[in-house]
Amino acid sequence: MIEKADQIFVLLLHWLVGFLPASWQHVASTILCVATIVLLYPALFAIAVLLERKGLGRMQNRYGPNRVGPFGILQPVADGIKSLTKEDIVPFRADALVHFIAPLVLVVAVFMGFAVMPMGRNMVLVDMDASLLFFFAMGASTELSVFMAGWSSRNKYSLLGAMRAVAQMISYEVPLLLSSVVIVMMTGSLSLVKMVEAQNQYTWGLPHWYVFTPWGLAGFVMFVIASMAETNRSPFDLPEGESEIVAGYFTEYSGFKFALFFLGEYVGMFGIAGLGTTLFLGGWSAPLAALSVVPSWIWFFGKVMLWICFFIWVRGTLPRLRQDQLMNFAWKFVLPMTLVNLVVAALWRFMGEGLLRWIVCTAIVVVAYAAMGRVEMRRERLGPRSYRYAE
Amino acid sequence: MLGEGILKGLAETAKNFAGSYVSKERLTTVQYPEERIPTAEAARVFPFLVYDGTDWEAGLRCVACQICEKECPPKCIYIEKSKDKKPDYVGKLQIFPARFDIDVSVCMSCQICVEVCPFEAIKMDTEFELATDDRFEGLLRHRNQLAKSNEYYHKIHPTEAAEVDARLAEEKAKVEAKAKAAAEAAAAKAAAEAAAKSAAPADAPQATAPAKPAEPAPKTTGGGE
Fold it and tell me: Which of A141, A345, B17, B36 could pair covalently with A215 via S-S, beta carbons 3.0-4.6 A apart?
């Protein structure tokens, strides 16, 4: 029974595909899986948008949307209808083809990442050996879409926003990759499925999640920071700084193309949250051995939604960074921390079992964090500005 | 250490989030169509015409002098004078507006019509839901829509309305005193004439005195409540 609940989607797929002749089964099952992913994440997107608007409202002591349907739960439907029926405006001098393709590229690239994501036991579309690499390759191609959008709009705000976005995403791509490299070092594999399997073990009922090790925790924190920057979430949402550059690279997008950008952003968030869950929080494995009776897919999506809630919480708390602060933070703090973390992970690997490695690794991580926070992130004393030519 | 401030901030927003479900005082939002804040006494949106008593047509204070029509900066008032006359609050016969229209879409709520009106006939309303789906006829307010009772005026602007009533009562008293004085003078004159003519002086002033204050006195006291 437990087994069946856990594998319900896999069994359902096999049952559905069983009606077809054997030669078609492989293609049909792939199409079904893709269709499920493509339908599931927009549905989650709608839930996340509602959660975000309600949650942010509550954090600011407001009600949030509460007009459409009971408690405003139909708000995403209203938003969807609105963006579908809005006029699609393309600037007169815009590069129409690139302008049209940009949101599609984003959505496609973002959805591709889910192909390798293990969403439950045996629930992975493509069990690739280098799935982590594939995910990052797909994640990096969203930058292309952002720049296409900014460039083709022929608008200075769009272009500035795109420049900012690309600079930011490339800067944070490095710590994002380096913080996940420690997991690769530990598991000795680039396969996300193997990573989850490695974490799906229990000692005294407690899981072997990587986040419960010194290097895992440090990597997790750096991964969260980098993932927020990578998905353009607040406090790193400079590419769409309303106060300076209207809406950044999607200034000139309206109607459903804008909705596609919005969707791409949120689905990207789900992707990065799913990856973080898989890498550090044990993917679909239960937080306690006793809770393994609950189906694995519930744990995966539960963790992803928790991650999204954390993103919303941070968005409700922190103001937007300045561009130089953003870059300083990436290159002076997050990147050195991930590099130190690599050394810590290597130490952990070669020091053998025992209490000593816990003490040494924790000490190194804490000291590095405190020292780097103090030295690299110290407030710059800015003197009065002097003008050489203007006066 | 780096990040302490962030943790403090996160705690603060978490407190707000949880607190907004627990204590109602945190949520300051007034959910407008269902809940409303009472409008401020000095609020002004759109003019209305004041009438005394219960019949709006008979009690209308406006005498169609057309001062407001001339003074209105955006020219949103349109008045047509009546052919016949009706008694005003002191009982004097006056013409009245046969037609009094104000265009909501043109009015800029400047209150100049109120400032210039010598008869306290036009005042500012606090009703602000003037939107309509008919942009021609629906936005033009006719005199039957504009006419609102003195009681309503007291409800929305109590202090101002009390002052206006006091002023009107004073004016009316003055008119009455004048009429009384005139009547007394006339009576005295008649008496003097009668005395000069014959020897029967006492009856004449008593006959004229009860006739003059009868009609308008209860009207003002009723309006002043």
Answer: A345
Put simply, the answer to whether A63 touches B29 (Cβ < 8 Å) is: yes
* Cβ-defined contact of B1 to A370 (cutoff 8 Å): yes
Chain B residues in contact with A235 (beta carbon < 8 A): none
Greater pLDDT, B62 or B219 = B62
Indicate the class that CATH gives domain B42-170.
alpha beta
A63 interaction partners in chain B (CB closer than 8 Å): 27, 29, 31
Alpha helices in B23-93 (DSSP H): 56-59, 67-71
Q: What is the pLDDT of residue B206?
A: 52
- How many whole angstroms separate alpha carbon A45 and alpha carbon A307? 13
Let me know: does A288 contact A208? Beta carbons within 8 Å.
no
Q: Which chain A residues contact residue B3 at CB under 8 A?
A: 373
For chain A, the residue count is 391
What span, in angstroms and rounded, lies between the C-alpha atoms of A84 and A77? 11
**What is the pairing mode between strands A202-203 and A206-207?**
antiparallel
Are B27 and A63 inside 8 Å of each other by CB?
yes
Q: How many domains does chain A have?
A: 1
Domain ranges for chain B: 42-170
**A55 lies in a domain?**
no
Residue A291 located in a structural domain: yes
Strand, helix or coil at B122? strand
Q: Which domain holds residue A322?
A: 91-375
Q: How many helices and strands (H and E) does chain A possess?
A: 16, 2
CB proximity B158 to A under 8 Å: no
Please report, rounded to a whole number, the percentage of residues in chain A having pLDDT higher than 90: 18
Whether A77 is in a domain gets the answer: no
| Average pLDDT over every residue of B111-116 | 90
Residue A335, domain member (yes or no): yes
